[in-house]
Specification:
By secondary structure, the protein is of the alpha+beta class. 21% of the residues lie in helices and 36% in strands. It has an eight-stranded mixed barrel with strand order 1-2-3-4-6-7-8-16.
Length: 291
């Protein structure tokens, strides 16, 4: 058997158990594709990552990201969690406050801010673009949103490597009390070749400015407790639509309370209109894996 260093990280979490768990396996060079996929299925988490030496001279490390079903080019919470794992193990060190992550989406910068024992990490996310706004012909979307009070922006489908339907709801209570029709959302994902539906609303008098719920039924997940890529897609959508308003170019998001989590994500849009998503992480399990 091969022995691999193994960490499990709670991502976008200000305390253990609040965020989205990620398994990180080191020594990926000693595993083939089938073994990586088998391990990802065995951990039974939304994603499992494998750390390898970089092939690009500009990168500090390379990561491969697997869901329980397949390898994907990029995702937010796996990128943040893997960055914390490489820092935690000494596999890579931040240079001038940043790491460079090599993945199938390219070489992406990761900011490292705050104390070394509890850093805030942010990754620059491949930007999403609005494909189109919803129309009266989108019957599958209408069924998925049935009974919900919509907000100011019309729903839209966006694309940034992964495709999402985004819908602004009237207020925080509308998001929190939503009872998703998983069958309708799964049908929407299948009909439009998308991950599914993500809803959000603006919040007042809270330590966060947006509340989000994401339903990636297109990959078999009923609800995501904390999705970096989905939140980055919302940020890009709001910026492209000219609808950031009081949110500004930096804001905080609450996600996951409805399913027993309490994740906090930090979103930023820089001067080049690039979107960054980040937050705190909690290493929970450290050990070795025999496979």
């Amino acid at each position: 058997m091969n022995t691999h260093e193994f960490l499990q990280i709670d991502v976008f979490a200000e305390r253990p158990g609040a965020g989205n768990p990620l398994a990180v396996v080191f020594g990926g060079e000693r595993l083939d594709d089938a073994q990586m996929q088998a391990i990802a299925a065995w951990t039974n988490l939304a994603e499992t990552t494998f750390v390898l030496a970089p092939t690009n001279a500009d990168a500090d490390y390379r990561v491969r990201i697997f869901t329980t079903r397949k390898e994907i080019a990029f995702a937010g919470h796996p990128s943040i969690g893997t960055a914390r794992a490489v820092l935690e193990t000494g596999f890579a060190e931040a240079r001038d406050g940043s790491l460079r992550q090599e993945c199938l989406a390219g070489v992406l910068p990761v900011r490292v801010e705050g104390p070394a024992a509890d850093p805030t990490l942010s990754v620059r996310v491949p930007r999403s673009r609005i494909l189109r706004y919803a129309s009266g012909q989108d019957e599958a979307l209408r069924r998925a949103l049935h009974g919900l009070s919509l907000g100011a922006l019309p729903p839209a489908i966006v694309e940034g490597g992964r495709r999402w339907w985004l819908a602004e709801l009237a207020d925080e209570a509308s998001v929190r009390s939503m009872r998703p029709d998983h069958g309708a959302i799964a049908a929407l994902a299948k009909d439009t070749d998308s991950l599914g539906l993500c809803v959000f609303a603006r919040c007042a008098n809270q330590p966060f400015q947006l509340v989000v719920r994401a339903f990636p039924l297109g990959v078999g997940i009923d609800e995501d407790p904390a999705s970096g890529a989905a939140n980055a897609a919302i940020a890009a959508f709001l910026e492209e639509a000219g609808a950031l308003r009081e949110l500004g170019t930096r804001y905080r998001v609450s996600q996951g309370r409805e399913i027993g989590h309490d994740a906090v994500l930090e979103l930023g849009i820089d001067a080049q209109r690039e979107v960054w998503v980040g937050g705190r992480t909690q290493p929970v399990i450290r050990g070795t894996m025999d496979w």
